[in-house]
Design brief:
InterPro entries: CblAdoTrfase-like, CblAdoTrfase-like_sf, PduO-typ. Its EC number is 2.5.1.17. Pathway: Cofactor biosynthesis; adenosylcobalamin biosynthesis; adenosylcobalamin from cob(II)yrinate a,c-diamide: step 2/7. With about 190 residues, the chain is mainly alpha-helical. It has one domain: Hypothetical Protein Ta1238, Chain: A (Up-down Bundle), CATH 1.20.1200.10. About 55% of the residues lie in helices and about 5% in strands. The chain has five helices and four strands; from the N terminus they run ββαααβααβ. A hairpin with a 5-residue loop joins β1 and β2.
Length: about 190
C-alpha cells in the first residue's frame, strides 16, 4: 500500500529525482521524461473522461490504471535485477496489450472504413481523445528512444503503440461511430 503523508521532500531541489529502484538521476533524464509523459497522458485522459459515460468511461478508467502501471514500469530500470528487489516490480504485461487489441477490434467492427484522413475534432470527447492519442505517441517515441540506451520492457513500448491506435478508434466511436468525423480535404484552402 502507498502512504503519502508528506508531499514535498526537498530531495529534488537540486534538479535530481529518485527512480523506483532508489537510484538518483537528473530530472531531465530520458527515463524521467518518458514516465512523466505517461503521467501527462493520464492527466489528459482524466479531462477526456469528463465527457465519457458508460462502457467508454469504464474502458478509459482501466487505461488510466494501466498508465500508472506503465509509469511504475518505466521508473524502475534494470529488469534483470527485478528478482533481487525487496518488493516485486510492477511490469506491463502482454495481456494488457492484448486487451487493447481486442477492444480496438470490437470498436472498429462498428465503424465504416475510412476513405479519408480525419481531422481531430467533432465531439468534445473525440477532440480530447485525439489529444490523448498524440500524447501517447510522444510517450511512445520517448520510450523507444530510451530503449536505444537502456533496457525498457518491450510490453511497455507495445502498450503505448496500441494505446495511440485505441485512442484513434475510440475518437471515431465518440463521433457518432464515425458519422460525425471531420474529414480532411487535401488542398481545400489553396
Amino acid at each position: 500500500m502507498v502512504v503519502l503523508n508528506k508531499i514535498y521532500t526537498r530531495t529534488g531541489d537540486t534538479g535530481d529525482t529518485a527512480l523506483g529502484d532508489g537510484s538518483r538521476v537528473a530530472k531531465h533524464a530520458l527515463r524521467v521524461t518518458a514516465y512523466g509523459t505517461a503521467d501527462e497522458l493520464n492527466a489528459t485522459l482524466g479531462v477526456a473522461r469528463l465527457h465519457a459515460e458508460g462502457e467508454m468511461d469504464a474502458q478509459l478508467a482501466r487505461i488510466q490504471n494501466d498508465l500508472f502501471d506503465l509509469g511504475a514500469d518505466l521508473c524502475c530500470p534494470d529488469m534483470e535485477r527485478d528478482a533481487e528487489a525487496e518488493y516485486p516490480r510492477l511490469r506491463m504485461a502482454d495481456a494488457q496489450v492484448t486487451r487493447l487489441e481486442n477492444e480496438i477490434d470490437a470498436m472498429n467492427a462498428r465503424l465504416e472504413p475510412l476513405r479519408s484522413f480525419i481531422l481531430p475534432g467533432g465531439s468534445a470527447l473525440s477532440a480530447h481523445l485525439h489529444i490523448c492519442r498524440t500524447v501517447a505517441r510522444r510517450a511512445e517515441r520517448q520510450a523507444v528512444e530510451l530503449a536505444t540506451m537502456e533496457h525498457v520492457n518491450p510490453a511497455a513500448v507495445k502498450y503505448l503503440n496500441r494505446l495511440s491506435d485505441w485512442f484513434f478508434v475510440a475518437a471515431r466511436i465518440a463521433n457518432d461511430e464515425g458519422r460525425a468525423d471531420v474529414l480532411w480535404v487535401p488542398g481545400a484552402n489553396r
